[in-house]
Amino acid sequence: MRVALRGGLLAVACAAALASTARADEVILKTGGSIRGRIVSESEQEVVIETGAGPVKVERARIREVTRSPRQPPARTPAAEEDAPAPAPPAATPTRTLLVFAFDGADAALVADAGARAGRVLGVAVEVLPGRPKPDERDMVDRRAQVLQLLARQLELDPGGPSEELERRVRAALRDNPKPAAREAEAVLDGPIPPCLAVERLREQVLALAQARLADASVIGAIGVVGRDMTQKGLNFVFGHAAPNARVGVASYWRFGWREGPRDKVAHRLAVQLLSTTGVLLGLGRCEDPTCVRAFPNNLEEHDRKRAFCAACRPRVEAALRR
């Protein structure tokens, strides 16, 4: 069963500092991204940096450079030199800020990395909020019932009635349908269909957490990130969703290959979704240019072909950020 993917997507070519505070330590990654916060410990194997989303452990093999706030002495390591030069002051903080945080259960380091990449592309500060809301049963949607209703509409059946009766009617219609897609739909129904998180409920939690900060005109908006599947009415799943009037959004990395794919690629895809959701917060609609972040993708391959805001959309982004 094919379901169109929601949320414009952008392939991120470079990464940037995660500005959680004006005075912060920074771990610059070899991939081009960086994580900002307060370094709490170091060893020959790793650096631990405290961010608003929690502590993040970074292997030395992934680090290109470490810089520290001039107001905090560097953490001691066995190889530290007593006469080491003072670190350079951090770069000036951008004037606009995007708030990003991980829901409980999401990978805080992944969210920090993806936020840094998105911030670099937009040229804004990305601040990881300290709160970590926890989804519960009130946030869940019975996706099995939702899938049955979608199949019923595709088969031109009445989608109403009790779930058990609806499933009997859907299965009977699928058995009479010779198309290969019908066999795929039967396989979906035969397997487990776990519940999804409802984007509307998640948005409410983001708004409750960030409402005081959203009163600041320099704040673009707030985006919460979950590591579970999301859905909304009429759709099987969504990658991301935003409510521009409320200036809040949500994004999920559940379908970005996080269980088997390289971590760097998952961070890249999540950064793409953060950029897409931010585009909605800035007032951008869909774009017809297939290489633009705001183009409509139907699969991850199309997602990964996104390169940048197109020549028509980029000036609109820059103008919105100046307001």
Give a verbal description of the structure.
By secondary structure, the chain is α/β, with parallel strands linked by helices. It has two domains: 1-71 and 91-135 and 197-323, Collagenase (Catalytic Domain) (3-Layer(aba) Sandwich); 143-190, no CATH class. Helices cover 32% and strands 20% of the residues. It has helices at residues 108-122, 143-154, 163-175, 180-190, 199-214, 263-281, 300-305, 313-322, and strands at 25-29, 34-42, 46-51, 54-59, 63-67, 97-102, 125-128, 140-141, 196-198, 219-226, 230-231, 240-243, 248-252. The strands form three sheets. Strands 4-3-2-1-5 form a five-stranded antiparallel sheet. A five-stranded mixed sheet has the order 7-6-10-13-12. A three-stranded mixed sheet has the order 8-9-11. β6 (97-102), α1 and β7 form a beta-alpha-beta unit. α1 (108-122) crosses α6. It is globular and about 70 Å long. The model is unreliable at 1-22 and 71-93 (pLDDT under 50).
In short:
With 323 residues, the protein is an alpha/beta fold. It contains eight helices and 13 strands.
Largest sheet: 5 strands, antiparallel
The computed structural class is alpha/beta
Q: Strand-and-helix sequence, N→C? A: EEEEEEHEEHHHEHEEEEHHH
CATH superfamily of the largest domain: Collagenase (Catalytic Domain)
Helix share, percent: 25-40%
Number of separate structural domains:
2
CATH architecture of the largest domain, by name, is: 3-Layer(aba) Sandwich
Looking across the biggest beta sheet, what order are the strands in? Answer: 4-3-2-1-5
CATH fold-level name of the largest domain: Collagenase (Catalytic Domain)
| Highest CATH level, the class of the largest domain | Alpha Beta
Question: Span from first to last CA?
Answer: 43 Å
* Uncertain parts: 1-22, 71-93
- Please count the beta strands (DSSP E, at least 2 residues each): 13
